[in-house]
Amino acid sequence: MAGVELFSHPALHTRYRAGLCSAAALALLLIAVLTYVPPLLVAYRSHGFWLKQSAYREQPTVRFRYEVLFVATTGPGPGSFLAWSTFPAFNRLQEDRLRVPLLSVGVPGGAGGGAGRVGGARERAAGRAPLPSRSSSLVPNFVPHGTTLSGQTREEDKNQDGKMDQLHFKLELPLQPTEHVVGVQLILIFSYQLYRMSTLVMQSMAFLQFFSPVPGSQLYMNGDLKLNQRQLLNHCGLDTRYNVSVVNGTSPFAADYDLTNIIAAYRDRNVTTVFSDPNPVWMTGRAADTPFIINATIHYPEEVILYQPGFWEIIKFAWIQYVSILLIFLWVFGRIKMFVFQNQVFATTPISAVLPLSPVSSYKQHQS
Fold this sequence. Notes:
Layout: E1 4-9, E2 14-18, H1 23-45, E3 54-58, E4 61-73, E5 81-85, H2 88-94, E6 104-106, E7 115-117, H3 121-125, E8 150-156, E9 166-173, E10 181-194, E11 199-229, E12 238-239, H4 259-267, E13 271-276, E14 281-284, E15 292-299, E16 303-307, H5 311-342, E17 349-352, H6 359-367
Parallel strand pairs: 11-12, 11-15
Antiparallel strand pairs: 1-2, 2-17, 3-16, 4-5, 4-10, 6-7, 8-9, 9-15, 10-11, 11-13, 11-14
Helix pairs in contact: 1-5
């Protein structure tokens, strides 16, 4: 019995044999190619076959680093501003535009945002104003030099999940009766971390800015510290590319503290945070003996993180698409093969299977 078995089907009870170089064998090869290759092409050409990016949600771990750079515009002139920061080198560059500070710092985790106090000008000048013991480890170099600035801040974990959800920041700038604030620029620096897929550790900032032609008494802002990605994160590993200070606080050069240079260097990063508040409130009518106040609430929302999928995740999604289309082709070309071999479109040797006799027919033959 020449040839090899090319096709059989339980419903036909027949096996079909032919040579490997016969027309039936070539037809079977063509049907196999048409069964398995087109589903791959259809899945690939319909876009999204190879998963190029994926997303997940994560609540970032954000902590305020107690590093601040503040500029208040008091007039239209180039030197009409007051400034202060937590960077001593910056403060020394301000000369008469810097004033002696009185600063209250809310200790993270303290009840009700209780404040530790940094001493007055004489104590600071003598170097006898240490920070509170609970906050000293959290406030590096936080002994501001030469401003009349007070502030109060605290972070809250509202849902008690171990991650901070928002920052309340309050800053008061005492002014002389003839001084008026018409604009504010404020940089707050944060530690920002992600853990679920790749571990991202970076230092980021929130830039708060507002200007008005009318002198103000208070600025109120309430917004989100949003993650901004121009590059996909990795699906695993440790990413510390941007775990560097946003402001070079040790530099003695004024150019390193210029807001234009700071923001330009920060925007060159592929991963940043952006403070977004569509509705800042600028209040006017400041009394002569009252300070200018900034009240800001910064939320740390849950983020949608975009990342580059790994190999097995790519294969998983590609396989699902391919198989879902392949099942249709298997059904269609299975019927075509049955038609071709059952109707002898190509010459083959059919071999019928010998079916066992049923007990009833066997009994009738015995009786006859």
